[in-house]
Amino acid sequence: MHISDGVLSPAVITAGWAITVLLLLATLWWGKRDVDIAEEIPKISVMTGAFFVASLIHVSIGPTSVHLVLNGLLGVVLGTLAYPAIFIGLVLQALLFQHGGITSIGVNVINMGIPALIVYGVFKKGYSTGINPSILGTICGSMAVLISAIMLAIVLISTGEEFTEVAYAAAAANIPIMIIEGILTGSVVTFLLKVRPELLPINKEK
Amino acid sequence: MKEAICVKGLTYSYPDGTPALGDINITINEGEKIVIIGPNGAGKTTFFLHLNGTLKSQDNRILIKGKDINGMSNSERIRKVGIVFQDPDDQLFMPTIFDDVAFGPINMGMPEEEVKERVKKALSKVGLEGFEERVPHNLSYGQKKRAALAAVLSMEPEILILDEPTANLDPKSRADFIKVINNLNKEGITTMIAMHDVNALPDLADRVYVLNKGIIAEGSPMEIFSDWDLLKDNNLEAPDIFKFFKVLGCFGYNCEDLPLSLDEAVEVLARTIEKENGHVHLHIHEHTHAEVKDVMHSYNHHTTWHE
Amino acid sequence: MKEAICVKGLTYSYPDGTPALGDINITINEGEKIVIIGPNGAGKTTFFLHLNGTLKSQDNRILIKGKDINGMSNSERIRKVGIVFQDPDDQLFMPTIFDDVAFGPINMGMPEEEVKERVKKALSKVGLEGFEERVPHNLSYGQKKRAALAAVLSMEPEILILDEPTANLDPKSRADFIKVINNLNKEGITTMIAMHDVNALPDLADRVYVLNKGIIAEGSPMEIFSDWDLLKDNNLEAPDIFKFFKVLGCFGYNCEDLPLSLDEAVEVLARTIEKENGHVHLHIHEHTHAEVKDVMHSYNHHTTWHE
Amino acid sequence: MDYPEIDRYASIDSPIHNFDPRAKIITFMVMIFSFVFLDSITKALVGLGIASLIYIIAKLPKAFVIHRLKVVFLFLFPLLIIMPLTVDGQAIAQYHSITITLEGFQYSSLVIIRALSAVTLALIMLGTTRFDITIKALYMLKVPGTLIQMLMFTYRYIFVIMDEFQRMWKAMESKGFKLKANRYGLSVLGNMIGMLIIKSYDRAQRVYQSMISKGYTGNPGTIVNFKLQAKDYAIALPMILIALFMHTYHLVL
């Protein structure tokens, strides 16, 4: 789902970096409001490490295998700090494994990070209205991938109309991932709810 | 006696090419109590992972009860050999103890009733009756260790392998754990244990292998601990009690079999005294000091930092 | 003698309300060698985190060299007390060994040259000279343990606290590590160690505290190990050598101070024999068997599973 | 699951290896950004040629680069099939209603060539420097300390957590588990990821405590010594000029 180098137009790349830098500043500033950032740095780092490792897991579907995305789960667990976490994760994926290009990091972080932020809001809202957290987790996991896929398509098309069909194909390729991520995120949320509910954004306001 | 495990010329290198195991040959009979000792990084865990087929060996190197492990079905494989790893946190990943202990039986495709039966039985064997609904993550370390054991026992393996079962346990939990393992062995399960804890070793071993990439030595605990050079070359040590009886020898104490544990020491001492008509003399003769020095020196590790 | 650590009525509960430490009072003098023992989950780590101010106590409960730890500046605090935690992977968080060992000195605001000097010195103390550029991931467990120690030594703390320094080490690495700690203590550093490993304890302790939420007992290793009930109530054990000399007593052996380690045992034995004119008689008298049974029973833990 | 060994060959001796890390990052980033925006196949091929030349100078093993380029190529390969069929333009082959267009073929080739040259450059940049030094160089280049620390710690703990994950995985396998994309498989995997998150959270707490014990206040505590020398300018300048020239030569000539 990560866009490689050489695909996007200068305008899209520039816009991608600009938005990502702004969102990084905003989310870190937001994070600093209620927590000590010195304490958060090791926390986000080690957690990002865990998500990074988890995203290396292959799940085989038929003849192919897919990587986990986990941006929905990231959003649910880390809240607004999911954005810097995804930034770090994608930088390391690009640098260490060449998953996604270096020039396109800005855009890729937006594609993964904005859905994570949206899903965080959805989870909190959904939980306060009494939706079963497991179902909510499933919805959030799928929804994050869905939004990412749509954003991916939009980015591709806006870089050039030559990419229209490629964009549809890429978005369609994400449908099985959507299902897998949904089930998976649902079960992680169920697990956390039972074992460590304080890792979920529930009752924090009360 | 029937062979439980037979390994013929097993060799393994890590994916990056570093050799991990070289030409390992061992034969273990049913019901034996084996301990494997060796320095940190000797390849014990890698070896164990071969024994239940989690790591695949080349061509028929590993026979479990005479049958090639690579040719076994998933459920046969795990019914034959169960491995309890060192860190219980790596093995308990379910929301409840029940789920963790039921995991193996479920993977074996058992019907629900039998799974429940087995969970109950396994938990009672390790003294965790009624812990089904508890969250593994919230247990004490000693309880987690036992839960991890139960999660393997529920598969009712014929061969049980344990990696450092006593590490990080307080003395009581350690004594308890050793007792459980011995009970299982008495029930007929072949046990194979890797451990650093030489003072607990005599309780858990009929026979000892020294592993350091390859099999360096094999023998009774007595034979192994008597071989000073072997111990030194492999960063190993003998139990304190054993060493102390070696020292007693320098003071004129004469006993044929040296004890390895406190329990044995008491027996041996009583026997020796009785044999010598109720009296044993300890005295300092002209060579005593030199001999003591010699014994103590043999067992002392030189501090050479660079590994 | 000057006080290194003075804790007055420290009480602590976890954020969820579970009590962790209750009314702890201890005083440790400069240069002492202290070991803290206690069952798994006794609160040792939590206690240590208070001693260098990582966890904040209420109102002046902890004085380091007479000064309230909460009133100290960051760099004074870490210069006074250094803690080496159990898992080296938690403490080596930087990309290279140099960065890890330099981390403390840099935070103390030292100039670059001195930082480098200190890194070099700390690494040589643990026998890792030339490891500066190495990556923690590629070290062996024993090397990581030493690197974690170096990363604390580089702050040149006056008080050194170690949590289970010997856990999971093979016997040689363990012997090496004990030697390093003892050397540091000889150089004047006050050392305080939490450990389960009672057989290594006598080498590392002048004085022992038994901790189980609160301080249960305090005394010389000898006093602690002689108190059977205390040991039993707190899931603890005495060293095998010590127990064996208790047994020897039943056979008519008469010695005033019981040894706790092998080295001591040799000395004590030689001294006793010399004192008794070169001869010691071991014999079985009418009460021997009953007495032995008694001693052995006192030290045996009842297996009661439910903790 | 393999360790990220991007800097496995960082100890080789070559002019690129000896290039000051900061200058290296700036130079290569300029080149990468330049080459991904080249707008014709000819120019892109020249870019790929330059990248290959630098690769030869850097003396990195073939397998190191080829293996990673292959991954990128396979990822982009679908473009070579989809675009010739979907992009409008001059037909080079036709079968019933299916048309293969030259423009589609050219466009997808351009994308792939640009990608390959960018990745080659990135691999040289990263492969010739120890990764921790790359991060420290970024710090010297004024990337904010918060992000630098996150990069450092995350990088460090990827290795630790990978080991942890492998141990969990082995324990599951030795209880007969095989991951399949069904409900049971995914729910077990979900538990495992949940456990990994909890363990990492707890570890983060312990790491933080050990950092506090060493006087951590939120600043990246690290010492970096880089010295820019004349030779660094001598390498950087022409490379940057070439990168700029590729976009501006029509203005100059």
UniProtKB/TrEMBL annotation, chain A:
Gene Ontology terms describing biological process: transition metal ion transport
Cellular compartments annotated: Cell membrane
Record bears the keyword Ligase: no
InterPro entries: CbiM/NikMN
GO CC, alphabetical: plasma membrane
Transmembrane segments: 7-29, 41-61, 73-96, 102-123, 135-157, 169-193
Record-given protein name: Cobalt/nickel transport system permease protein
TrEMBL record, chains B, C:
Database matches in InterPro entries: AAA+_ATPase, ABC_transporter-like_ATP-bd, ABC_transporter-like_CS, ABC_transpr_CbiO/EcfA_su, Co_trans_ATP-bd, ECF_ABC_transporter_ATP-bd, P-loop_NTPase
Highest taxon above the source species: Archaea
GO terms for cellular component: ATP-binding cassette (ABC) transporter complex
Residues in ABC transporter domain copies: 5-238
Gene Ontology MF: a single term: ATP binding
Signal peptide feature range: none
A Pfam family hit: ABC_tran
Membrane topology recorded in Swiss-Prot or TrEMBL: Peripheral membrane protein
Entry's Gene Ontology BP terms: cobalt ion transport
SUPFAM superfamilies named among the record's database cross-references: P-loop containing nucleoside triphosphate hydrolases (SSF52540)
Cell compartments where the protein resides: Cell membrane
Parts of the chain that traverse the membrane: none
Keywords from the UniProt entry: ATP-binding, Cell membrane, Membrane, Nucleotide-binding, Translocase, Transport
Function: Probably part of an ABC transporter complex. Responsible for energy coupling to the transport system.
Similarity comment: family membership: Belongs to the ABC transporter superfamily.
Name assigned to this protein: ABC transporter ATP-binding protein
Organism, as annotated: Methanococcoides vulcani
From TrEMBL, chain D:
Keywords, alphabetical: Cell membrane, Membrane, Transmembrane, Transmembrane helix
Gene Ontology BP terms: cobalt ion transport
Subcellular location: Cell membrane
Gene Ontology cellular component annotations, sorted alphabetically: ATP-binding cassette (ABC) transporter complex
Keyword Transmembrane helix: yes
Record flagged with keyword Membrane: yes
First-listed, main subcellular location of the protein, grouped into a coarse class: membrane
Topology of the protein relative to the lipid bilayer: Multi-pass membrane protein
Name of the molecule in the record: Cobalt/nickel transport system permease protein
Pfam families: CbiQ (PF02361)
Organism expressing this protein natively: Methanococcoides vulcani
TM helices/strands, residue ranges: 25-57, 69-87, 107-127, 139-161, 181-201, 233-252
